[in-house]
Design brief:
The structure holds three protein chains of three kinds. By secondary structure, chain A is an alpha/beta fold. Chain A has helices spanning 3-14, 35-44, 55-66, 85-88, 93-96, 120-123, 128-131, 148-155; strands at residues 48-52, 72-73, 101-105, 108-110, 115-119, 134-140, 144-145, 162-166, 171-172, 180-181, 188-194. In chain A, the strands form three sheets. In chain A, strands 1-11-6-3-2 form a five-stranded parallel beta sheet, sandwiched between helices. In chain A, strands 7-4-5-8 form a four-stranded mixed beta sheet. A two-stranded antiparallel sheet of chain A has the order 9-10. Chain A is globular and about 65 Å long. Chain B folds into two domains: 2-113; 126-241, Rossmann fold, CATH 3.40.50. A four-stranded parallel beta sheet of chain B has the order 2-1-3-4, sandwiched between helices. In chain B, strands 6-5-7-8 form a four-stranded parallel beta sheet. Chain B is globular, with a radius of gyration of 17 Å. Chain B starts with a strand and ends with a helix. Chain C is of the alpha/beta class. Among the domains of chain C are: 44-290, 3-Layer(aba) Sandwich (Rossmann fold); 402-456, no CATH class. Chain C has 21 helices and ten strands. Chain C has helices spanning 9-16, 20-41, 47-63, 65-78, 89-102, 114-119, 121-127, 137-145, 161-172, 181-198, 224-231, 251-263, 292-296, 312-316, 318-321, 334-344, 361-365, 372-385, 391-404, 407-423, 449-456; strands at residues 82-86, 107-110, 131-134, 201-204, 208-210, 215-220, 234-240, 244-245, 270-274, 282-288. In chain C, the strands form two sheets. Chain C has a six-stranded parallel beta sheet with strand order 1-10-7-4-2-3, with helices on both faces. In chain C, helix 3 packs across helix 12 (251-263), helix 10 (181-198) packs parallel to helix 11 and helix 16 runs parallel beside helix 18. The longest helix of chain C has 22 residues, at 20-41. Classes of the chains: A alpha/beta, B alpha/beta, C alpha/beta. The interface between A and C is large, with 70 and 89 residues. Strand 8 of chain A pairs antiparallel with strand 9 of chain C, so a sheet runs across the interface.
């Protein structure tokens, strides 16, 4: 008997009588998420938030924050000036390791914890949102859900090979509980909330 | 209604004042109290040490002494919790079951059964309330800081009926004192450190007395207070509620 | 894996308590985290309902584990993930080793996995000439210090920043005397970035594996699991078989509870869902038993397998805070560790269920409602029945039983005890009496309650 069979046999012999799954309906909130709450929470966890009306505005802000000579990359057709095919599609780590700023779209935001759901579709390459020194994500103002329950409802309507919730910049408090922003992932994370009602 | 008075073994031997106060308080409130003189111990020290299988003798004695009463009341949370959860009798499980459900810690009995809403008690002192774990988390005699739930306290409500008492605020409202039965000697270092920290919290907030529903916790803290030469005293809640 | 040790929790805790200032520091740091957890839990009115739902989901998982494991395996394979099974830690380690060999490398980067601690993976690989670098900052620190982690979420919570600075001075070449957390973290960032960029094999843990979709989730604040996995050609994910959950939507419940319970944050910075390997790379998941099926068969203790490794029980435990994770001499320490470890080795871990006052705080903070303190009590009964109580204790208990089951013997013993305390206190107030080391004995009253009653009330 191989280990797989041994384990399955042991599980079957040991598991208790079936108990039912709980009803999850009480957790559902039939309302949109609060953009204010999302903003407050994301700022609390070290992220920055800008409310914008256009991609031009996004580009301007990025230039302002980052100044001259920074490697700003984006796969977004709306941000042509940052589009760099060679880097975006490169499989050479040497091309990717010195990206300063990476901007992508997020599918939606979660108000209760300041997180944004992003998948490999938006990331272009999985490592890019992590290897960049600074990350920016653009979401539509109307795509805010209240809690993780609605988030998974949204996710069930999509497909991905890899997806992640990103809630602010990377950080650690491993040294005497002192919070340090910027551990191994990006040192900063900026959310651009796009007003789509224009 | 007749109440059987259940006196924890260490209260009987070392802190009779708590039992005397319980007896007098219940009588004052119009309860007929009977004290079965042949009672000994609920068996908790053995059970908590892994020797529950040796508690048959204690269980039998308990049932023999107490089964007949309408209620059984004790000035202790941990002993009551132990009886409620572990009183069994292979030969007479029915009686054991009924008996288990009749056992009450004192403040629960006063609040839930007698529904006391005033007391002729006076205790003009600053008092810190120690939340003994078994009473609090086991018997739910008060809310717990870990849970997201409305606050309440049976001992607290009763103490608030006492004239001129001042209950002090504490930094950690319901941290364990470290007594823990045989833990107090088998893990002496941690036990004492926990006790010292509890005591320090009360001292920091200028308590003159430390009270609670369990004399075991208070005995442990008193041992530390005496060793420190402190003038702060411990006192069982029954003695405050009975004070005039 | 812990080295051969013969000291038990009480002895190790005694050593830990020699430095009272340090105990205060350790205790206050973890209590602060417990308070952060309280604060954020109170912001969720439905918190207790969430706990109940999480508990029921996990109960269902344990009762249907066979089917969920089959379902997960089939879906993971359909996603392109290779699934391996390891009956024990040794087999897990061999599988990891084989995968590293197949990739033709001798180095690997690893993010946090308590399971691999349990299996002793790092030591095994080192013996076989494979270099493993732990990328979680806390784990890297203890790795450089040559110690195991002391806390499952905050691996080096027992280390002061000056000590960490000294470790980095010794091993990473910074100047002596640095203790600024910002500087030290930046140092680790630079050092580990080079590791991420060059390692072709990365190992991560698994927080949750979803049977319905064949995907698994890895949660970090640092982004180190992602940095390792997305730059490697081979991503190995190690998980205990109990980490399965039925449906993806259940992640909503668990991700709301996990980080709030662990550190008081709303969610970790990254909650990464790995479903398919990226093109040109591999994902291997190793499902490990290592005693879990035995625990599953124990009616009183199987609920310990619901654990999602948040460490809320450790942060709230007044004993853990004042004795430190290393006092438990096992990979997963604290209250949950004390009900998991005896299943693996009753003799070695017989001391752990007794390292508790049974205060019950742990059960209250557990997001999946494991009845931890009840299980601690029950393990005590099992251990004594299996002969793991020290002989002196057994004798003492027999004597206590005899005394307390006889009204006559009890009264005599009580009277004798009070007499000794009054007339011959030196017999008790000495160094043979552990109580007396730091506490005074109670003052003996003139009469017991029984005697008072007989004198004043009986017959009236």
């Amino acid at each position: 008997m191989n280990s797989r069979d041994k384990i399955f046999a042991a599980v079957k012999a040991s598991q208790p009588a079936t108990t039912p799954l709980p009803d999850m309906h009480s957790f559902e909130r039939n309302a949109a998420g609060s953009l204010d709450k999302f903003t407050t929470v994301l700022k609390t966890v070290g992220g920055s938030v800008y409310y914008v009306n256009s991609y031009a505005e996004v580009a301007n802000i990025l230039h302002d924050i980052n100044g001259e000579g920074k490697k700003i990359i984006s796969p977004l057709t709306e941000l042509r000036e940052f589009y760099n095919e060679a880097i975006l599609n490169s499989t050479h780590i040497s091309d990717l390791q010195d990206i300063d700023v990476f901007i992508i779209k997020g599918q939606f935001a979660v108000a209760e914890n300041g997180a944004i759901w992003v998948t490999d579709k938006e990331m272009h390459q999985r490592v890019l949102p992590f290897i960049t020194q600074h990350l920016a994500i653009i979401i539509n103002a109307e795509n805010v859900v209240p809690t993780m329950h609605e988030a998974y409802d949204q996710i069930s309507k999509t497909s991905y090979g890899f997806g992640t919730f990103i809630a602010g910049p990377s950080k650690t408090a491993d040294i005497e509980q002192s919070l340090v922003i910027g551990a191994h992932g990006p040192r900063s994370m900026t959310a651009f909330v796009m007003n789509t009602s224009l | 209604m007749t109440v059987g008075l259940f006196v924890p073994c260490y209260v009987d031997q070392f802190y009779p004042g708590a039992a005397i106060a319980t007896y007098q308080l219940l009588e004052k409130l119009g309860v007929k109290v009977v004290y079965p003189p042949k009672q000994t111990c609920c068996g908790q020290p053995m059970a908590n040490s892994g020797f529950e299988h040796l508690t048959g003798g204690c269980n039998e004695l308990f049932i023999k002494n107490f089964a007949e009463f309408d209620y059984i009341v004790a000035p202790s949370g941990s002993c009551v919790l132990h009886v409620r959860e572990h009183l069994h009798d292979d030969k007479n499980e029915q009686v054991a079951e009924t008996t288990r459900h009749k056992v009450y810690e004192l403040t629960s009995f006063l609040t839930d059964v007698l529904k006391v809403d005033s007391l002729p008690a006076k205790f003009p002192h600053k008092v810190g309330v120690h939340q003994s774990c078994h009473g609090q988390r086991g018997l739910h005699i008060s809310s717990m800081t870990e849970l997201v739930a409305p606050e309440f306290s049976k001992p607290g409500s009763l103490l608030n009926m006492v004239q001129d008492i001042e209950l002090v605020h504490l930094d950690r409202k319901d941290e364990c004192c470290g007594f823990g039965g045989t833990f107090c000697v088998t893990e002496e270092a941690v036990s004492v450190k926990m006790g010292k920290d509890r005591v320090a919290d009360h001292l920091k907030h200028n308590a003159e007395y430390i009270t609670g529903v369990d004399m075991s916790c208070l005995m442990h803290m008193e041992g530390i207070l005496h060793r420190q030469g402190s003038k702060v005293k411990v006192i069982h809640i029954a003695e405050i509620l009975n004070a005039e | 894996m812990m080295e051969e040790q013969t000291k038990d929790h009480a002895e190790l805790a005694l050593e830990f308590n020699r430095d009272e200032d340090r105990v205060n520091w350790h205790d206050e740091t973890l209590w602060f985290i417990r308070q952060k957890r309280d604060k954020i839990a109170h912001q969720i009115p439905e918190w207790e309902t969430l706990r109940e739902a999480a508990s029921q989901i996990k109960n269902n998982v344990l009762s249907n584990l066979h089917n969920y494991l089959q379902q997960f395996e089939a879906n993971a394979i359909a996603n392109g993930i290779t699934v391996h099974w390891a009956a024990d830690g040794a087999e897990h380690n061999r599988i990891v080793h084989e995968l590293i060999n197949k990739a033709n490398v001798v180095r690997m980067v690893k993010s946090k996995s308590m399971l691999t601690e349990e299996c002793g993976l790092n030591e095994y690989l080192a013996e076989h000439g494979i270099e493993v670098i732990d990328s979680d900052l806390g784990e890297r620190i203890v790795q450089l210090a040559g110690e195991p982690p002391s806390h499952i979420v905050l691996p080096c919570i027992h280390k002061k920043k000056e000590e960490i600075g000294e470790i980095f001075h010794q091993h990473l070449g910074i100047e002596a005397g640095i203790s600024d957390p910002q500087f030290l973290t930046e140092t680790a960032r630079q050092h580990l970035r080079e590791v991420f960029l060059t390692r072709k094999v990365a190992l991560t843990g698994v927080n949750f594996a979803v049977a319905e979709t064949g995907e698994f989730v890895v949660c970090t604040n640092e982004g180190n699991a992602d940095m390792g996995a997305h730059l490697a050609d081979v991503h190995i994910a190690s998980m205990g078989i109990e980490k399965i959950i039925p449906e993806r939507k259940h992640l909503g419940v668990f991700l709301r509870l996990l980080t709030r319970s662990a550190t008081g944050q709303p969610i970790t910075t990254y909650s990464s869902h790995f479903k398919k390997p990226r093109e040109g790379s591999e994902i291997h998941i190793i499902l490990v038993d290592n005693g879990r099926t035995v625990q599953l068969g124990r009616k009183d203790f199987r609920n310990s397998l619901k654990c999602i490794r948040c460490a809320a029980c450790m942060n709230t435990c007044p004993v853990y805070r004042r004795s430190g994770g290393h006092s438990y001499h096992t990979a997963v320490a604290g209250p949950i560790g004390s009900i998991l470890a005896p299943n693996l080795d009753m003799e070695k871990y017989a001391d752990l269920p007794f390292a508790s006052t049974l205060c019950g705080s742990c059960s209250n903070v557990c997001p999946v409602k494991i009845d931890i303190h009840q299980q601690l009590y029950k393990w005590r009964q099992v251990l004594v029945k299996n002969g793991y109580a020290p002989t002196a204790k057994k004798a003492g208990m027999q004597l206590m039983t005899w005394t307390l089951s006889s009204p006559g013997a009890y009264r005599m013993a009580g009277k004798a005890g009070r007499w000794v305390l009054k007339h011959a206190p030196f017999a008790v107030n000495n160094s043979f009496n552990p109580w007396y080391k730091q506490r005074d004995m109670p003052n003996p009253p003139a009469q017991s309650f029984g005697e008072w009653f007989a004198k004043n009330k009986a017959g009236k």
